[in-house]
Amino acid sequence: MALDKFRIDGKTALVTGGSRGIGLAIVKIFVEAGANVVITGRTCTDAVKDLLEGHRVRVAWIAGDVRDRETPGRLVSAALERFGRLDILVNNAGVADNGNFDEFDDQRLNFILDTNLVAPFRIAREAIRPMLRQAGGTILNIGSISADVANKPQLQVAYNSSKAAIHQMTKVMAFEYAARNIRVNALAPGYVISDMTEGGIANREWSTVWTENTPMGRFAQPEEMATCALFLCSDAASYVTGAVLTADGGYTTH
Ligand code: NDP
Fold first, then answer.
1. What is the pLDDT of residue 82?
2. Which atom of ligand 1 is nearest to the CA of 146?
3. Which domain holds residue 206?
4. What is the pLDDT of residue 56?
5. What is the CATH number of the domain that holds 143?
6. Most ligand 1 atoms within 8 A of CB, residue of 16, 20, 244 to mutate
7. Does any ligand 1 atom lie closer than 6 A to the CB of residue 90?
8. Does residue 54 lie within any of the structural domains?
9. Taking Cα atoms as reference points, which of 2, 51, 44 lies closest to residue 30?
10. Using one digit for the tens of pLDDT, what is the confidence trace for 19-63?
11. pTM of this prediction?
């Protein structure tokens, strides 16, 4: 059955920032599609506790800050120890910060780059080793339309830069590992309802600009990103690598 290609039964996935928002929606759809899932984030939420309660065998929570040097090794080891393999990595954990270019001192700049770029690089570097041993795997980096446009009305130059770099990292990794049966793709969401956008959506001026620039005229639900993630991480996308799948309600069409 063609639809079976969307199943990921028996695969093991590691999802960073899986405690809420887009990451949590991805964790839920992966569990529904049959995978074992290792979730990480700094704080375990009630939603994660519910998942652990309902799926003791297939879901594991590993607390960690993706910026810490020891986190990537610890996450990948935990996946291997618990489930014996690692097939899917979703680099989802991310943060945003608003301000003019000249306001981004080193501390603010590093906070964004360390979380959104350096950490995904290090975690992918760690995850690729078991994938090479297994002769297969797939990595999904959560990028953004912010890689291609200047955000408005909020200014986010560090965030924009981190997401552009993640898209490029995705393409180069895809090129390097295509012949080793490891696919690497990115998902570029538009404006999605989550804690990250909560303040902006509550701000009438910002939310008006965001929706007026989105031809579909609305924000996305995290679940609308999760279905895209499942596609890219499943055999349904067996010939897709180095792609950036834009899911933005048309934001970048104009
Ligand atoms: P949320 O703020 O809702 O969730 C962010 C997640 O990342 C949380 O699970 C958080 O957990 C985790 N996280 C953040 N920092 C760290 C850290 N240092 N170590 C470990 N985990 C961390 O964000 P979204 O769900 O909206 O965003 C998810 C991804 O999607 C991000 O990469 C974001 O840039 C991207 N994106 C979001 C868009 C949107 O409109 N929402 C649009 C385009 C892209 P905890 O705080 O417990 O650590």
1. 97
2. 43
3. 2-245
4. 83
5. 3.40.50.720
6. 20
7. no
8. yes
9. 51
10. 999 999 999 999 999 999 999 999 999 999 999 999 888 999 999
11. 0.99
